[in-house]
Design brief:
single chain, 625 residues, 34 helices, mainly alpha, 0% strand
Length: 625
């Protein structure tokens, strides 16, 4: 039955007159059978017309055959056309490609242009027809077929170009012919480069003519045609740069030199010439010029050292927006110290950074822009939403926002609070009541540094926070941490149990130093020297210290002095210590110093090997002695 449905003709009238339904079969197969003539105008069928395959590719073989028949091209050329338009075929029917080919050929466009610019076929046929119609309206064009390179531009750009060309009066009838006359270049070649720089038509006519005159006075016409984008610069800037280039020892001046950074005209530029090489745009030397220029400019603007400037440069991956952003922020009153600390924001695009600063300027109760600069690290839409939420919220008797409220209650600088809030944006989304209640609870029972370093605890309801704090306070007293609020119950119970065990060993107000004095029989000075020699011993749980001491003194018969000489043993894994001591006992070794037990696995194995070799040598000497 399924086989029959798959091969049933699309125009099967016998099925279309009956109420036929099979629930288990993909509805797309039946829709092909019931499709009407109006709904199936394309003669190339879909592979599968089901909803799940709505974006599937059309049958490749049929399309390639059609393209080959239309263009009389090779298999390689048809493959190239297919690959270039493959994405479009996920949306449009293949008839789009064949219709566009017929449309282009009807307007006299050569097949060569289609082969070289296959993506043009992905343009909707109606839009492509509009482009062709507009290009025919360009003034002073004898053969509109020459304008085919402009088909790659957007319809909006072509429309703007035609509108401007109609309104202006220029020698040659349009800017293409004008450049061709002034440079002595053939019109098709001008069109080729003009099409890739169509924005040149957005330049005011006076500026266009003035810049062209300036460039032709100093540059070769062929180079100007290839770099028409230079005409978009201000005439004064072009004159200034060309004058500087004329006074340099360069053999040739090219248009790209007008666009490189000013540092390109300095000492680095001359060093390259001294080596007998002419500079090339975007080479390693040009990047060195740019880096040197940015570093020196940053040192001047920020008043920082060369080392600090290089750190900022590397952190921002050598962004081209660095200097512009620093100058902009300084104008807005942002301190150099703030920019050095928040260097990551300097790699933001100038337009985006300006928009973010303007958004921050709308923040109510803003005391100083430097307080909220870390928020510029967020995306623009995030920042707008946060500022809007802060403006719609009132905190405290004096109207303020969360940043300043947190800062005033904890004693931190607002910029420090903002930096942490920018990393934990949920602090702006927590309900107001929860935020206030949790902050009050934390300030009553925890250190402010711990609170700011671990903001995740604010995500829990005040009820849970209060309950966790009460449980922890019963055991730990004042030594509470935010992680105790958010950790699983099992972890909290284990931590509290360890605290109880440690308390049972140490007693009230007893420190690890006093425990050493009592357990090892040392005076306080000797116990302190142990801690000074190995400070990390302070961080080891007292229960573990007890187990290690019990094992060494009671089971292995070591002396307290052995532990005092090698306190690292107290931090070492007891399981590993037991394993190594058992292995050493098997080979008849009882180390005088415990230090070997604390060595790395490689060092320990070397010691065992040397011990075995030494033992073997002594045995041989004894046998033959």
């Amino acid at each position: 039955m399924l086989k029959w449905l798959q091969f049933v003709p699309k125009k099967c009238n016998s099925l279309s007159t009956r109420n036929f339904y099979i629930g288990a079969i993909d509805g797309g197969l039946l829709r092909n059978a019931f499709r009407t003539d109006d709904a199936n105008k394309d003669d190339l069928p879909l592979v599968d017309d089901s909803i799940s395959a709505a974006t599937a590719l059309w049958r490749k073989e049929e399309l390639l055959l059609r393209l080959k028949n239309l263009l009389n091209c090779t298999h390689a050329q048809t493959e190239k056309l297919y690959k270039a338009n493959r994405k479009a075929l996920r949306i449009f029917a293949p008839k789009l490609l064949t219709d566009n080919i017929e449309l282009l050929r009807a307007n006299g466009i050569e097949d060569k242009f289609i082969y070289e610019n296959p993506r043009v076929l992905s343009t909707p046929t109606g839009e492509l027809a509009t482009k062709l119609k507009l290009l025919r309206e360009l003034p002073a064009v004898d053969d509109s077929k020459m304008l085919s390179p402009f088909l790659k531009a957007s319809l909006k750009s072509i429309q703007r170009m035609i509108d401007i060309a109609r309104q202006e009066t220029i020698s040659g009838g349009n800017r293409i012919n004008y450049i061709s006359e002034r440079t002595g270049t053939e019109v098709p070649i001008v069109i080729k480069f003009f099409a890739t720089n169509i924005r040149v038509y957005r330049i005011a006519l006076d500026k266009f003519i003035s810049n062209l005159n300036i460039c032709l006075d100093h540059l070769e016409p062929a180079h100007v045609v290839r770099h028409l984008s230079v005409l978009a610069y201000a005439p004064a800037s072009i004159r200034e740069r060309l004058k500087a280039l004329e006074n340099s020892p360069l053999e040739k001046i090219k248009p790209w030199m007008v666009r490189v950074p000013d540092i390109a005209l300095g000492k680095s530029f001359e060093e390259v010439i001294e080596k007998g090489r002419q500079p090339v745009f975007k080479d390693s030397v040009t990047s060195t010029w740019f880096e040197t220029y940015v570093l020196k400019r940053m040192e001047s603007l920020l008043g920082c050292t060369e080392e600090t400037g290089r750190e900022i440069y590397e952190k921002c991956n050598g962004s081209v927006y660095l200097v512009d952003n620093i100058e902009f922020l300084l104008e807005k009153g942002v301190l150099a110290e703030t920019m050095i600390k928040q260097a990551a924001i300097l790699m933001t695009k100038r337009e985006d950074l300006q928009q973010k600063i303007n958004t921050l300027g709308t923040l109510l109760c803003l005391r100083n822009l430097n307080d909220v600069i870390p928020l510029c690290a967020l995306k623009t839409y995030q920042l707008k939403k946060i500022v809007n939420n802060l403006n719609n919220e009132q905190l405290g008797p004096i109207n303020t926002n969360r940043i300043y409220y947190f800062s005033d209650n904890t004693g931190f600088k607002p910029s420090e609070v903002t930096e942490q809030f920018a990393r934990r944006t949920f602090m702006f989304r927590i309900p107001k009541d929860s935020f206030l209640a949790n902050l009050k609870l934390f300030m009553e029972h925890m250190n402010r540094e711990d609170i700011l370093a671990d903001l995740w605890a604010f995500k829990y309801s005040p009820g849970i926070v209060a309950e966790r704090i009460a449980r922890a306070k019963e055991v730990r007293g004042k030594k509470l941490m935010p992680w105790m609020v958010r950790c699983p119950d099992v972890v909290l119970e284990k931590s509290l149990q360890l605290t109880k065990d440690s308390g049972a060993l140490l007693g009230e107000n007893e420190t690890i130093v006093e425990y050493f004095c009592k357990r090892l029989g040392f005076d306080r000075d000797v116990a302190n020297s142990i801690i000074i020699k190995t400070p990390s011993v302070r961080n080891v749980r007292i229960t573990k210290v007890k187990k290690v001491i019990d094992y060494l003194l009671d089971e292995l018969d070591y002396k307290p002095n052995d532990i005092a000489l090698n306190p690292r043993i107290l931090m070492h894994s007891l399981q590993t210590t037991k394993k190594r001591m058992a292995q050493l006992k098997e080979i008849g070794c009882r180390p005088k110093s415990l230090i070997i037990v604390c060595k790395s696995q490689r060092q320990y194995e070397m010691f065992v090997k040397e011990w075995m070799d030494s033992k073997e040598r002594k045995k041989k000497i004894h046998q033959y002695g």
